[in-house]
Amino acid sequence: MDEKTFHGGEALARAVEAAYGRGETDYSLEPMVLVDDAGAPVGKIRDGDHVVFCCRRGEREIELTEAFTDPAFPHFERDYMKDLEFVIMTMYHEKFKNLPIAFAPERVKMPLAQVLSEAGLRQFHCSESEKFAHVTFFFNGGYNQPFPGETDYCVPSPKGIPFDQKPELSLPTVAEKVEEAVDEGYDFIVTNFANGDVIGHTANKDAKLLAAAAISKYVDRVAHYAKEKGYVVAVTADHGNIEALYTKEGKPHGAHTTNLVPFIILDPKGRPLTLRDGRLGDVAPTVLSVLGVEQPVEMTGRSLIETPDFHNDKMMLIILDGWGFGTHDEGDAIYLADTPAWDAMLAHYPSSKLRASGEDVGLQSGKAGNSEAGHNNLGAGRIVAQDDIRMDAAIKDGSFKSNPVFLHAINAAKEEGTALHLLAYLTEKSSHGCIDYPLMLTEMAEGVEKVYLHIIFDGRSTEPGSAPAMLRALDAKLAAIGRGVVVDGVGRGVALDRDGNYAKVKRAYDAMTLGTGTSYRA
């Protein structure tokens, strides 16, 4: 094949269509690998090559990054490539601080957890593993290590079965551990109920209704358990998701929404209470106000409680992941589900509505919220500019093309005659990344003979079954640039695991490095 005229998008599109015929979906597509006429895989990552991981978040990128960069990687056998340059877009974890990072992180100054720690208060952060990074790394402003006095507890999410086959996930155990923390008397407890987002991303209506029912049951149980033990309890959400059952076209809805989210206060003393509407960045100041801790100057949000002198010794924050206010009709999973306890909570306790999307959480105007931005803002007590804003600004002002980390990898590949590999996320609007990034890097790679794109399919922020059309559009853009070949593809659910399922990560890694997977030809 002539890599100057063949760009591989069409070939992978046909392979994806064949995978659909086998019952696979975008999110879980097993590895597909381009081979030449002799059956040899094309464009595999080799020691001495240069790689840019074109994703911009964190928790889903960690395991694959480890596989490429950790000399002592223990999770599966692979030949460590000591001379491989592996560039990451943002710092996915502190363990990668010595890697080349295109957009170095801007940590939040004085997040809630740090303020409470310095005030001498004990705190407990708990969720299941699907959202553990959110109540720790993201909630804590980009710090991986717990602050003094902070205990973090991770409950394993279900393994070995599709999540929609167990809509309850590990919520019963999360509830149990949070109640134990109440009994231990922590001053502040924060927990995440993952179901609304994890199940909301599926197309399974029945599972969504069961998940909503489970959330109703356990938020009622945990909130009242804590209230009875003297805790002021705040219940909120990080963004909307599960409430929307259908798209405008009537198809299953599986993405985040721009809907408002609830904020509810349960007071063990039953005092009269007035709440105002606001945004997620107002929650941390509310916690500090209740606990009687001085708000640092870095926090620009303000308390949602308008009642003066409303204080309490202990407080719990329950974050319902992906739980927004819906249309309250047949297209609203929360409305349709069996949620009497949730309905009663909204009716009987003071509540308000929070903005959890777009510019209110540091994202582009009109963009749906996400778990990372949500927890970042919840813990920071202010609007925190997200990576997509910083990176899109770099594209607009031209500084993306002058980024020294990118230029080093490109120039090294050019001078050494080695390959430039772009791990490319096939979406236009996900919080994990955007296809614009690898396309711009391909444009920048003038003079590099071998530019290979390794596709990671989204299946969450993209419409179901849209991958072939997106690949064909990508093919046309690569043809216009005049370089770049798509050489393999794998679903996000395989490559971007965040639950310690390294068997899945191995399949993605082996496809990119060894050419293992379902082969297809030009």
CATH architecture of the largest domain: 3-Layer(aba) Sandwich
According to CATH, what is the class of the largest domain? Answer: Alpha Beta
Strand order of the largest sheet: 5-4-6-10-7-8-11-9
CATH superfamily of the largest domain: Alkaline Phosphatase, subunit A
The total domain count is 2
* Main sheet properties: 8 strands, mixed
β-sheet strand percentage: 15-25%
Could you characterize the architecture of this molecule?
The protein starts with 8 loop residues before the first helix and ends with a strand. The chain folds into two domains: 9-104 and 389-521, BPG-independent phosphoglycerate mutase, domain B (2,3-Bisphosphoglycerate-independent phosphoglycerate mutase, substrate-binding domain, 3-Layer(aba) Sandwich), CATH 3.40.1450; 122-157 and 177-384, 3-Layer(aba) Sandwich (Alkaline Phosphatase, subunit A). The mean pLDDT is 94. The protein is α/β, with parallel strands linked by helices. 33% of the residues lie in helices and 15% in strands. The protein has an eight-stranded mixed β-sheet with strand order 5-4-6-10-7-8-11-9, with helices on both faces.
Summary of the model, kept short:
The chain has about 525 residues and is an alpha/beta fold. The protein is built from 17 helices and 15 strands. The chain has helices at about 10-20, 60-70, 110-120, 130-140, 170-185, 195-200, 205-230, 285-290, 335, 340-350, 370-380, 385-395, 405-415, 435-445, 465-480, 490-495, 500-515, and strands at about 30-35, 50-55, 85-90, 125-130, 150-155, 190-195, 230-235, 260-265, 280, 315-320, 350-355, 420-425, 450-455, 485-490, 520.
